[in-house]
Amino acid sequence: LFGTLWLVKLFGVSADVAAAADGYLKVNLVGSIVMFLSVGLTQAVNGAGDAVTPLIALAIANAINIVLGIILSHYYGVLGLAASFAIAYIISAVITLRVIADVLRWRGLREVYRSVGRMLLAAIVMAEVVWVVARNVGSNTGIGAVFRTLTGTIAGTVVYAVVLWLLGSSELRMAVDQLPARFVPRRLRAR
Predict the structure, then answer these.
(1) Which of 11, 67, 96, 158 is at 20 to 30 A from 133, Cα to Cα?
(2) CA 107 to chain centre
(3) How far lies 44's CA from each of 48, 82, 134, 190, in Å?
């Protein structure tokens, strides 16, 4: 979420274009995370032998993206276009997750949504911490930029894991259980 303005300025655009592109890229980055989730879910449904449902979910997402893009761009300009992209893929991910739940005959879809909600909350808190750390550490060039990136990455990873732990995330437990025993303290190992 940081460094986008610097990246845009590399193209030699005017200040107003750079500001609009910076905002678009930041909002679009959040939408891209959801898009990757949606694409992964549609591939899971494809792998289960259903190629039609993901096509329908993506067609719905694209239609929503177009309609919302027209409406939101009228009010918010370029940021509205980025927001329409993010909203459309959130809807696509929810539709596809529902299809996966039906295919697998999950009764506990509510727990899946809780799990995704915990991860989303942890990601939002992590993004805010990374933003604060990145603004106050290092610089935009040279070793300062490397230091800024490393500090933001480490802070984000730690905050994400701590928030998941505080929320009692079973996914964190499953991730820790996948690590080799030599990397996990005894008190954290599965019993």
Answers:
(1) 11
(2) 26
(3) 6, 26, 35, 28
* Amino acid of residue 118: R
Q: How many CB atoms lie within 10 A of CB 146?
A: 12
CA–CA gap between residue 74 and residue 77 (Å, rounded)? 6
CA of residue 44 relative to chain centroid, distance? 18
| Predicted confidence pLDDT, tens digits, the chain (191 residues) | 566 777 777 778 888 888 888 777 877 777 777 777 777 777 777 777 778 888 888 888 889 989 999 998 888 888 888 888 888 888 888 877 777 777 666 556 677 677 777 877 888 888 888 888 878 888 777 788 788 888 888 998 899 888 888 888 777 777 777 767 766 666 655 55
Counted residue by residue, the chain has a size of 191
